[in-house]
Amino acid sequence: MEMIGIIGGSGLENPEILKNAREIKLKTPFGKHSPITVGEISGKKIALLSRHGKKHELSPSNVNYRANIWALRKLGCKHVLASSACGSLREEIKPGDFVLPNQFIDRTFKRQNTFFDKEGKVVHLPMAEPFCPKLRKLIFDEAKKLGYKIHLDKTVITIEGPRFSTKAESKLFRSWNADVINMTTIPEAVLAREAGLCYQVIAMSTDYDCFLEDKPAVTIAEVLKVMKENSDKVKELFLAIIPKIKHEDCDCMHAAENANI
Hints:
The chain is built from 5 helices and 9 strands; from the N terminus they run ββββαββαβαβαβα.
């Protein structure tokens, strides 16, 4: 049975959007996955994974990304919608806006970032287009219908965290053409592609990164305030998107088929 996966990031740890919800646990080759609740939205089977735990107890570096993606694939997910709080690196991307990246820059360094790390199987996975264009268009169209401010085809840079950037780093990332910054898209997007999943992250801007000279550095209280406002909107967006996701073939599902040597 095919399911649709939702990876709930900061502010989306609770599964109240699901009907007939029940929590499940799977054994994975990679250890313990984050909490998963299965249920229904508009008659479609859903697996909601709380990336950081139900009480937000897992830091970005401690999330078991491999176990999470493996578990969603094992449950039959072919499409995965992921939410992620992010900081804006562009003045036009304001706190409260949504962003749909089509590219990423990886600045993580502590994480297991592939399923193909065993001797005897070398895989060079194409990653020119790391997110699903079909899901991205669907999300954009539904967000516009809801009247949300949403930015299409931007670049997200994922840092290791859990600290925020220095001013020097923030200015450097802007010079690399990064538009938003977060701590969770990598290796999640890479593993989803290896697993043959259609994956798209919805980045929720909570603040400006510290590149603005005339504004004080962001505080966690400010981030949490915007995060709460955004999480209610992204739930509404999920409810609009999910009935329109079609279980059809997509290039994302075949990316790893001919990538091994």
